[in-house]
Each structure stands twice: as structure tokens, then as C-alpha cells.
Amino acid sequence: MANRLTQIATRTGDDGSTGLGDGSRVPKDHLRVQAMGDVDELNSSLGVLLAEPLPDDVRSLLVVVQHELFNLGGELSIPGYTLLKAEAVLRLDQALATHNAALPRLAEFILPAGTRSAALAHVSRSVARRAERAVVALGAQEALNETPRQYLNRLSDLLFVLARVLNRANLDGLGGDDVYWRSERLAAQQAADD
């Protein structure tokens, strides 16, 4: 396969525009470019998470996700192009079911905290939600396949579940369980019940 990047500093974007994969140029604040950037940031965020100690099955899954996010970015970079397959969404659904089945039911909202790897999974989750919003905004303006939106929605859910898994894995010795939000309403209700 030929090397696709022959030059990094092209200076063609100095006018505030950027090239898409089909050769067209759009402003750098175009909804498509924003969606591509959020997906790129999400992939970079997962790269930071992958630098942490992780259970082997979680690591393998996240490596696959990084490749799929690259496909998603490629699809976004070429209007009308399809690259991310529906099977990728099914793979996330299966991973969600598997990992969620091993977790206790939530008693209350949890904070994005615990082990470093769990906290980084929560950061990635919030970036995934932003990327999803960007894809939804783009889809309101231009025709898009459903798969990118569905994939990002499922991925954010999966990252929430994986954060819980990583707290229990406790590979840095600082976690072990979910960090529950201390609801003032719930505390008042519990006090009234006592």
C-alpha cells in the first residue's frame, strides 16, 4: 500500500479551510470537520487509556475500537462514503452484554472516579458523547449513515461499563468499587427512614 502522507505541513489550511477525503475543501469549523475532530480526540483519549495497566480482554477490545474509530473518521472525511460496518455496532452490543452481566446493579449514580484507568474510561465516555452530538448535528444538515451515530452511542455506554469493570479490576490498588454520588435527597430520605 502506498504511503498516503507525503507531507504534514502543507500550509493549505492557512486560509481556514481543510481538505476532505474526496478532494473538496470546507471551512475548518464545518460540522463535518468538528465531528471528525471529536472522533479523533476520542481515539486519542483511548490511546491514553491503553497506556494504563488493563485486563487483557479490555485491552484487546479497545484496540479493535481504535481501528473502528479510525474507520469512522475515514467515513466522515468522505461525504457519502461507507466504511464503518454494522457488525462493529453488534460487537459493541456483545461486549456491553458480557461486561455488564458481571457487574452488580447500580444503587445510585456514580462519579467518574476510582482507579486511574476507570477515570480515563470516563473521560473517553464523555468525549464519545460529544462526538455523538457532533455526528447528530452533522446528520441534521447532511445525509449520513446510521452506523456512526449508533456506534458512538453504544461506545459511550460501553466505556461507562468498562469504567466500572476497571474499578473492580483495581490494577493500581486505588479502586475496587464504584464511587457513588452522595445525593442530598437520598441522604435526607434515609435519615427520615431511620
Account of the 3D structure:
The chain has 194 residues and is mostly helical. 61% of the residues lie in helices and 3% in strands. The protein has 6 helices and 2 strands. Helix 3 packs parallel to helix 5. The longest helix is centred in the middle third of the chain and has 26 residues. It starts with 16 loop residues before the first strand and ends with a helix. The mean pLDDT is 87.
Short summary:
The protein is mainly alpha-helical and 194 residues long. It contains six helices and two strands, in the order E-E-H-H-H-H-H-H.
How many strands appear in the DSSP assignment? 2
Stretches where pLDDT falls below 50 for ≥5 residues? none
Relative helix content: 55-70%
Q: Give Rg in angstroms.
A: 19 Å
Indicate the overall shape: elongated
Distance between the termini: 70 Å
In N-to-C order, the SSE pattern is EEHHHHHH
Average pLDDT rating: 87
Beta percentage is under 5%
- SSE-based structural type: mainly alpha
Strand order of the largest sheet: 1-2
Helix count equals 6
Largest sheet: 2 strands, antiparallel
